[in-house]
Each structure stands twice: as C-alpha cells, then as structure tokens.
Amino acid sequence: MLFEKNRITDYNQPLLAAHRRRLAALTAETPAAPGILDKLVRFQVAIPSWALGTGGTRFGRFPGGGEPRNLIEKMEDIGLLHALTRSAGAISLHIPWDIPEDTMHIRSLAASLGLRFDAMNSNTFQDQPEQTLSYKFGSLQHVRPEIRRQAIDHNLEVIQYGIGLGSNSINVWLSDGSCFPGQLNFRKAFENTLESLREIYASLPQGWKMFVEYKAFEPNFYSMTVGDWGQSLLYANKLGPKAYTLVDLGHHLPNANIEQIVSLLMMEGKLGGFHFNDSKYGDDDLTVGSIKPYQLFLIFNELVEGMDDLGMDHASGLGWMIDASHNVKDPLEDLLQSLEAIMISYAQALLVDRTALSAARQDNDVVRAQEILQHAFRTDVRPLVAEARLRDGGALDPLGLYRMAGVRKNLIAARGMRTITTGL
Ligand SMILES: [Mn+2]
Known about the structure:
The protein is of the alpha/beta class and about 425 residues long. The protein has helices at about 5-10, 15-30, 35-40, 70-85, 105-115, 145-165, 185-200, 230-240, 260-265, 295-310, 330-350, 355-360, 365-380, 380-390, 400-405, 405-415, and strands at about 45-50, 55, 60, 90, 115, 120, 170-175, 175-180, 210-215, 225, 245-250, 270-275, 320.
C-alpha cells in the first residue's frame, strides 16, 4: 500500500507554483525560515499502534473497514503516513496487543519503511485471557504481593521485547487507584507502586528511560495512584535519573495550565515524553489542535524555550507521540490532521522572537509580550510545513493525495470491511 516515490512527485507537480508563491511571501518576512525548515524536517512524531483502528466509547464502536489486522499491517499504515508527511517516522508498540513474533522480520520491515521503535507500552489496566490473577483492584499498587509480582513481570517482559526491537524507553501508564472513599490507603498504594516501579527501573538497560504517565481520573473515579504531575514527579525523583514524567494533554483536570506544568518539569530535567491529543471535557482523545490550537501553541512555545535553554535536541530530546482515538473519522485521515497540527504549532513556536519577549517581560510590558506570542500564533506557517515535507520527499497536501488515491477504499478491498484491529 506504500506510495511510489514518483506517485508523490507527480501529485506535487501541479501544486508547486502556488506553493512557491506562498512560501516566498512568508520567507520574505521570516529571516529565521531556513533554520526553521531544518528543524521541521528533522522533527518526527511516533504513532501508537492502537491509533490505526477506529476507536470506540463504552457505548459502542463503529469500525470503518480496512483496519490493520496485525502488527505488520499496522506498520504498513504508519509507513504510509510517514511516506506522505515525512514526520511520522516512529512507532510505539503496546504489549500484549502487538507482540512481535518474528523480531528480525519486524525490524527489517520498520527499516524499509523508515520507522524506528519509540517507547514500549505495558498494559496492566485490563486482564488478558491467559492471565491468572486479576487487575480489577490495581496492578503495581495491589494489596496482594503476587498480583504486584505479575504486573512487574509483565513490565520486565515488555522491556525485553523493546530490547529486541531497538527501542530505548518504556512508558508505564497505570489505571491503578480507587473508585470509592475508604477503598485504599493512599500512602500504602503509593509505596507499593513505588516499590514495584523500583524493580522495573532496576532492570532498565543502559541508555533506557522510564516514563511515568499520570492521569487525573478514569477508569478510577475517586483517586488515581499516579493522578497528576506532582505524583508522577515524586515517583520519578525517587526512582532516579532514568525516570521521567510523561505529559498526556488529556490527562488533566479541566483548565489546568499545561504549558506551566511543561515548563517546570523541564526546569527540573524531568520531562521525558509527550502525548498529543485534544479535549474539551476530559480525556476526549480528539484530533490534535481541533479544539484548543492556541493552547497547543503555548505548550510548544514552552517546549521550544525549555529545550533551547537546556541545549536539548528538539527531535530526540523528548519522546513525541500522538495518543488519540478515533470514533467518527477514518483513523489515518485523523492522524494526518494531527500531524499537520503538531507541525504547525511547532513551526509557530520556532517563530517566536525570544529576545523581544524577554525584553518585554523585563519591562513588565504585558501587552507587548502577548502581541509577540500572538503574532507568531497568527502567522500562517503552512507553507513552511509543506516545504519541509517537500524537501524530504513528502506530499505537499498529504490529505489531498490520500483521498485522491482512494487509500481507504483500497485498504477495505485488501483487508475487508469487518476487520478488527488487535487490542481494540
Ligand atoms: Mn497517553
């Protein structure tokens, strides 16, 4: 299902003149454009293997057909996104949904698609058919040591799969918590979780990172044992230098100032990774940039400032991933929209005049500071994002080409209408 290189070149041809006109107008007033383009070309976002099928809600699921039936087909879908956008060059696997049966074959397929393996994800939030003990009342926090043992062993197994694939990080998201007052001793739950995480941490290979992802509520609705960035940071600090906090945009209480959280975590050297999505009410997992694009820009503004202050490489310093679920859209179209929104916000953040912003802050010129940020946010950077894709062999309009080529129709023809993505 991969696009031939000349298919993309042919598609771009009639769009080139208009693109060059728009790009020239933008670069004429953007002296930093060449540097921004280099950074955009290098920036890659991982696609999780669970984002390629239609998501659902607890009320139902409406599969759209042609969904990938196994890991190989999931990788082919991500390879397609990467060929079109040149910015989806990594895949994040979930165990046990995506156990690689033939590691060498999976690795060579990834290499041929230009994909690397991003963070590995463990799963102790649901029971698997062959599992002996239940996670109904938690996993790493559980009051019974044998259940903690089982959850620890699962994470150790995930690390082993990751080593085989050449990944270098594990993301631990726990649904652990309680649904009613009195159910848990908070301190005991924290201590059990910490002790379990310590054992997983101890088996991290050289050069590996552990991400501790927090979430405010759901599936537990009274307390979450890793409920916010403060709790995640507590674990990360106690665990050691290989442990980091992971921020998922949808995992906060309403109206949390996520950009400030990001800024302070970076100051502490403890921001490890980032999950992109958007939301209006809770963990809605909507398309990135579809609800609050200004918030996304403000977050990127802090990320860029923080990474530059710390001398971090934008492309490799943090783990970047889309974590969204698609209920009414073609998942691949949705991911194309998310990738575009991420690149736009990143480009806008790179446009911010940091010297002028710093001077405005020093003068307490609140109006000027706001103007500087909003000038960048209101600049149409889409020609820069398109140019970055073009330079790397991608499509000027990925969604346009995806639709023109009838990709979904072809996938349905090849895979069938009633396919179910593993894990969903
Ligand atoms: Mn997440």
